[in-house]
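Q: Got a minute? One more chain.
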Amino acid sequence: MKGPKTAPIAHKRLPLETLKKRKADTSMKKEKSGKKNTGAPKRPPGPFLIFMEEFRKTIKQRSPTNKSVSAVGKAGGEKWKSMSASEKDPYVAEASKRKAQYEKALEAFNNGNKDEANSDGFENSTSEVNNNQGEKEESS
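A: Always. Here it is, folded:
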């Protein structure tokens, strides 16, 4: 035999003052945890992102008029998925090399030697888009 059906419990609405206090408390926590150290070295890219750097260059050479970021990203993702593990090995090796450099730079940064931490060039990296825009402005 089935038991009796229970009625759903109605949720109580909290007073407006309590809701405001909760909202104020959460916004304060977000501000404190959101601070980042701007001098710290940037994290290195993974194997896929290293592959995409090279893939973007080849696509750009093949079709310089293609401006669609999504099309390049989709094509790169499909090619990466179709690659075997042996084809991905050079990118994995480069990623581990960059990770070792990053860890060395981070350790130097944490020990207080900020000049050595910044010498690896992680924080000075810029995207190709910004570089290309600068070249166009100079040539104008």
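A: The radius of gyration is 25 Å.
Q: Perfect, thanks.
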